[in-house]
Known about the structure:
The complex is a heterodimer of chains A (378) and B (399). Chain A is 24% helix and 35% strand. In chain A, the strands form 5 sheets. A 7-stranded antiparallel β-sheet of chain A has the order 5-6-7-11-10-9-8, with helices on both faces. Chain A has a 7-stranded antiparallel β-sheet with strand order 15-16-17-21-20-19-18, with helices on both faces. A two-stranded parallel sheet of chain A has the order 1-2. Chain B contains 5 helices and 18 strands. In chain B, strands 3, 4, 5, 12, 13, 14, 15, 16, 17 and 18 form a 10-stranded antiparallel β-sheet that branches. In chain B, helix 2 runs antiparallel to helix 3, helix 3 packs antiparallel against helix 4 and helix 4 packs antiparallel against helix 5. The interface between A and B is large, with 85 and 87 residues.
Amino acid sequence: MSPLGGRARQARMLLVPLSLIASNSLPACSDDSxxxxxxxxxxxxxxxxxxxxxxxxERFGLIDRRAPTQPQDLFAYEVPEGWEQLPPAQFRDLNxxxxxxxxxxxxxxxxxxxxxxxxxxxxxxxxxxxxxxPLDDAGxxxxxxxxxxxxxxxxAEFQGSFQGMGDTGNxxxxxxxxxxxxxxxxxxxxxxxxxxxxxxxxxxxENFLSFCDSLQFKTVGTASDAPGSTGVDGGAxxxxxxxxxxxxxxxxxxxxxxxxxxxxxxxxxxxxxECWVTVLKGDAGGLLPNLNRWRGELGQEPLTGAEVEALPxxxxxxxxxxFLQVQGPVAEDGRVSYLFGVITERAGQRVFIxxxxxxxxxxxxxxRFIQFCRSLRD
Amino acid sequence: xxxxxxxKTIPRIAQSTISSMKLTCVLLIILLYLTWRGxxxxxxxxxxxxxxxxxxxxxxxxxxxxxxxxxxGAQLVxxxxxxxxxxxxxxxxxxxxxxxxxxxxxxxxxxxxxxxxVKYTFSTEGAVxxxxxxxxxxxxxxxxxxxxxxxxxxxxxIKEHLVPDEAFEALxxxxxxxxxxxxxxxxxxxxxxMVNAAVRKAGGSGTPTRPAVDGFYLEPMDPxxxxxxxxxxxxxxxxxxxxxxxxxxSEQQGWIxxxxxxxxxxxxxxxxxxxxxxxxxYPLGFxxxxxxxxxxxxxxxxxxxxxxxxxTTRDAGVEQTVEIMMNEPLRYKEFIFYQSGYxxxxxxxxxxVYSVLSVVxxxxxxxxxxxxxxxxxxxxxxxxxxxxxxxxxxxxxxx
Lengths: 378, 399
């Protein structure tokens, strides 16, 4: 095994020639021993805002905003016998009714994906809902712990007079019990709460705990060789005055962009072609100067205002936008650069859609570029 | 000096050759050539590529007409030059009072070469991109990548298990390496490293060249001349420790990409683990906060005339505020912070203003300065001794 550190990289690089000589002169080690490493470099850091459970489409920036991932889609779980699953509601990403039979009082049980607040604040909020005073640090630290979603979560059980909101008839009910687990993740938290009459909650305690144990984030990254298994074909971006969405044409793939670009696409089998979207605040210099700047990039003379008005248009965000096509000079190697450009306005912003590449590649992608521009929407 | 009367044995011939002034001249000419050639090569290879090929190599292949001729790289030339100066300048030179200045001068040059070696071997370089009010306790490498296995902990922390790219950058298609840790409940197998990769959707117009996972796969792209634009990719397969092989769900796999927006998350024994490919990060051991970034422009243009960052270091509760500007870096502990950039470059951009500080950790940072002092002292002493001898001889003749 070879331990791996972080900073002695270059020192080891100097030893490469020596190790090559040694490896040729010594009896050969087995491949297994040469290719197995032990990970020794470990550090504990604050979370930098990474999200857990992102799908491949989300990771690679191809999210379909029209069908956003719902919090309840993140979880896999087993519903205990006698529990009835209800549609998600506000603050209830998974929502269950427990033990209400024939009009008798039941209990609420629900899973909530929280964006923040922290352990202490949320546990004391629960106590407030039960009409109990907040716990101090020592009291909070003394709460029992239970493994929940892979973390050492808090298991809380508070009895009191429930003063929260619900639809089970338990509101402002005395002799209620709140049974909950809470795990704080780096960027979010997950809680499961059951609230209801104390005898019922106590009777459902084992079911509650087994439900919590069964709850897992859905695993992504399961191998699949089935083509097109994702079904994801769209994307989304933008901020400030509101995000917007688009459809990704067939054969276009997310490419390496830059901080200036909202999104960049490469085209399969057409390596010269690249398309990207940039959004700038305000007028961003105006339509005519920007179109002429693009013409200048390929060595072409500027257009007049009348010539721009005569350009063909594409409907983008419901408005016609001039569609610029520029051909560059023939290069020494015979290649000809080509450019498609569309500039439009949207909510006080300028949206620039630009595609560059070789002439043949771009002309072959013209219909997809137009299709992409037309697909942009709020 | 060699003794002309001594027999010519192999050690003496070797010593004579390695200490030869002619060798010094040849080596210096080669260094000049490499500097010229490496500078021109930046057009095609970029700064990083040219540096690797011409200056951080023992040999490189030079295209001469139809032939590829192996030529020495700067690393080899500098090692031989150090030996040449050591043997010729310090060991062979007679240690007399009249030569003391020359000896000190040679010692200074050796210090200079040693400073270069220490920097090459032990220094780390990267940058901090900070928005106003933002603090950083680490800096990010320009070129080196790492695989990070993240283990979420309570209270918003993550335990990161780090694998530097040197451990997997040689893994081509079909090559595999395994990684494990007593702290992790699984073994990782890495393969198919790509220096620059693009994401492909299975079922697109092209034929998949790699296995698709969750509907996507990565495909190699030509490396970029500007190395920092590369987005590497890697295939990982995870096998739970103690799990039996076979189709029982004990194995999971996925593609990770340098450009991915979120890490890959895999569940092992009900616990989430994240897998990310990112530029290497080096801890500072203290915090640097950007308080204010200011920029002035040449009149009538958007060209920066001057830009500077007011930063506060916070180390063990002690705060210190300084201003970093061009040619006035902050030196703190083993780190040097240079003002190297800012953004956004486009004033119409929606992104808030940020400052880019280059960070260098170089144990031999001040050695070139001291080397120059030693060389200057040695030369000055030598010239003074020569002048003293000349004056003394002239006075002796006159009397």
